[in-house]
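fyi for ur records
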Amino acid sequence: MSAPLSEFALIERFFRRPPRDPAIVVGNGDDGAVVRPAPNCELVLSVDMLVEGRHFLPDVDPARLGHKTLAVNLSDLAAMGAKPRWALLAGALPDNDEGWLRAFAQGFFALADVHDLELIGGDTTRGPRNLCVTIIGDVPVGTALTRAGATADDDIYVSGAIGAAALALAAMQGRTVLSADAFAAACARLETPQPRIALGMALRGVATAAIDISDGLTGDLGHLLAASGVGADLDLATIPRPSSIEERLDSTERELALECLLAGGDDYELSFTAPRNARVRVADIARELALPLTRIGTITPEPGLILRAQDGRELQSLPRPFDHFAL
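which gave:
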């Protein structure tokens, strides 16, 4: 029986790779990484963590978890219009199971390679499973997208479709039942979200504000509205959703469907605003990326979020957005 891996052997075996990016002066394996930013660019930095039992289930496939650990951070860069460059990975692990670590690393690096991102350092310790990535990207000077900047009469868009990830979790919790195909599709959205990096970069100079949908549409869009000092008027019928959500909106599970669609989170799509005169350009971007970009409402000058049903009447109560500290 082989001896258990030490902390440093674990890092060396599963997470250290020779740097390919010439901008990395000192990479993974020293006390700190040294990188050389691109000329005329600004750095965009973000950090996010995933905690077992809060953000993922204990029996989740480790390769999918490796993917998602990086994907949720890449999504933050997408919302800023940034190109991914480097990442730092820290993790508390209950043990040093080599099979689990190998699968996790494969999932992590497979997504990293898609976006030419380099892991340049990190840390590990024993403890309840908790995974944290600090991610670094860059944008040409003055082009970063932010939550502030939306103005009255701007259009509001959502990429892709939302609600399936939350519906998958609801099915896992026994709150609803899905067909085998619908459950597999929803689980893929929950466990392997696709960060919209190409969209974020394409929206530089087009979008007036942007945010990624991690904690639910109404909650995250609310952050954008607050940062911009504006309000929104949304049309429920236009919010893009999968058929598994659509069919529940006209059933006894309407409340659950609205919760998943509006407040479920874990979609990692982008919501953004753009002037009306940018509609043709937004349509071109959607076509170029083969990604639906759906107009769901309008920015209003007065603060507040109004969501209208198909008959035009305002919904009087909305599902509560996700809150990490809610009971």
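The two ends are 45 Å apart (CA to CA). thats all i got for now
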